[in-house]
Amino acid sequence: RKEVEQDPGPFNVPEGATVAFNCTYSNSASQSFFWYRQDCRKEPKLLMSVYSSGNEDGRFTAQLNRASQYISLLIRDSKLSDSATYLCVVNPDSGYSTLTFGKGTMLLVSP
Amino acid sequence: SAVISQKPSRDICQRGTSLTIQCQVDSQVTMMFWYRQQPGQSLTLIATANQGSEATYESGFVIDKFPISRPNLTFSTLTVSNMSPEDSSIYLCSVEGPSGEQYFGPGTRLTVT
């Protein structure tokens, strides 16, 4: 089983749609979780951290289910500018700073 | 978050040569990280660089191929040695934030012919 697995893409949605990305991780001891966004030919940028209680930032909602080792990202009212690849990222070891990246899910929002 | 710059932004190199990539941060950081992102793939950690000590390499990466320097708390270099076309990739440096997240430089796009 891969350490971090994401939905295969691409997701093609119209403007205004709601879209959800899912991610599973294999290491039950993982402590920190993040969603990054990567635009074409650009570096990954932190979108949001994911907390056990769930967290929301505007149109974006992230949730964590530790029992199922599952992370999700919900984007409401999609904009054209949301088109990007979304990376699920996990820190598998609280005592060490390395991150494990999923392969990413591409989102294409069309007019 | 820290401001990170990388040089060069891109390069085209011949096989058998070496390229040194520089990473500069606008604040002092303990740990810096070097990643590779091959076409269509996600990021793979090459090594972690602490100032004043040898870099720690991940499985599949060795110091002879990817020597790293970390002379101070704001700067690091990664050298890609004896390059082959398989080394064509984007190389990114990053630093750690206060909650375990990482912030990335803009990357160096390397093409080996």
Walk me through what this model shows.
The complex is a heterodimer of chains A (111) and B (113). Chain A is an all-beta fold. Chain A is 0% helix and 52% strand. In chain A, strands 2, 4, 5, 9, 10 and 11 form a 6-stranded mixed β-sheet that branches. The model of chain A has no long low-confidence stretch (mean pLDDT 92). Chain B is mostly beta strands and 113 residues long. Chain B is 0% helix and 52% strand. Chain B has no helices and 11 strands. In chain B, the strands form 2 sheets. In chain B, strands 2, 4, 5, 6, 9, 10 and 11 form a 7-stranded mixed β-sheet that branches. Chain B has a 4-stranded antiparallel β-sheet with strand order 1-3-8-7, with no helix packed on it. Chain B starts with a strand and ends with a strand. The interface between A and B is medium-sized, with 19 and 23 residues.
Tell me about the biggest sheet of chain B? 7 strands, mixed
- The helix content of chain A is under 10%
* Structural class assignment of chain A: mainly beta
Q: Uncertain regions of chain A: pLDDT < 50 for 5+ in a row?
A: none
Q: Give the helices and strands of chain A as they follow along the chain.
A: EEEEEEEEEEE
Computed over alpha carbons, the radius of gyration of chain B is 13 Å
Biggest β-sheet strands, sense, barrel of chain A: 6 strands, mixed
Overall pLDDT of chain B, averaged?
94
In terms of DSSP E residues, the strand content of chain B is over 45%
- How many strand units of chain B? 11
Q: How far apart lie the N and C ends of chain B?
A: 36 Å
For the structure shown, list the relevant keywords.
heterodimer, A: 111 residues, mainly beta, 6-stranded mixed beta sheet, 5-stranded antiparallel beta sheet, 11 strands, globular, B: 113 residues, 7-stranded mixed beta sheet, 4-stranded antiparallel beta sheet, 0% helix
